[in-house]
Specification:
Elements: H1 11-19, H2 28-38, H3 42-46, H4 50-54, H5 61-78, H6 91-102, E1 109-115, E2 121-129, H7 139-148, E3 153-159, H8 169-185, E4 189-196, E5 199-202
Helix pairs in contact: 1-2, 5-6
């Protein structure tokens, strides 16, 4: 690693550095390779949470925490770090800057991006985690953040762990509910972006946010 850089190491060798040492006659690299193979690849492994890591053979709480932290650092770094003040002019901007935060997660996560009058990000807030439904994306929760931060508009964002970006009937219903609530409050929903794998779906781009 020091001599040739991290690019010279295999996935298993990189993960082994986080694991630190082997167990039960297996080296750290052996354990790492078993973890990757058991999850069916590094990308799938990244979607696991700290509790799932802790239940894997050869991984205790401390190792699980290190692995989960490393994947989260990677997600944050890949999402263009300095998002505050960035202008969200197109759905591609949302997918590029925020997609990496949610695209590898094993459960759906619903976020709201709060924008100023020039469509610049004031901040982003996680509203809920779990299967998306009306109770997890209630207007009360979504627009509380918007009112508190005096947002001029909001962009909704969530992921589909299935890898299929097309909106479900529930996605469409929730989006319409939130669009109407934003209209009543004078805080418009500018878009709802669904991230799945390396793709995304934009309600605004498809003309699905019209009254």
């Amino acid at each position: 690693m020091i001599k040739n850089g991290p690019g010279a190491l295999s996935d298993g060798e990189l993960l082994a550095l986080l694991i630190g040492s082997g167990t039960n006659g297996c080296t750290a690299v052996d354990v790492a390779k078993m973890l990757i193979a058991g999850a069916d690849g590094l990308s799938a492994l990244a979607s696991r949470n700290v509790h799932e890591f802790g239940r894997m053979k050869g991984i205790g709480p401390a190792r699980a925490a290190r692995i989960a932290a490393a994947f989260e650092i990677g997600r944050r770094a890949a999402s263009s770090g300095d998002r505050k003040g960035a202008r969200m002019a197109h759905p591609e901007d949302v997918a590029r800057m925020y997609g990496p935060l949610v695209k590898d997660l094993a459960t759906e996560e619903f976020r709201v991006l709060l924008l100023d009058g020039a469509n610049r990000v004031v901040c982003g807030e996680r509203v809920s985690q779990g299967i998306l439904n009306a109770s997890l994306a209630h207007p009360r929760e979504v627009f509380k953040f918007a009112v508190d931060h005096r947002a001029a508009g909001v962009i909704l964002l969530h992921n589909h762990p299935s890898g299929e970006a097309a909106p479900s009937a529930e996605d469409r219903r929730i989006t319409e509910q939130l669009r109407r609530a934003g209209e009543d409050l004078g805080i418009p929903v500018l878009d709802h972006v669904i991230v799945a794998g390396n793709g995304y779906f934009s309600f605004a781009k498809e003309g699905l946010l019209k009254p």
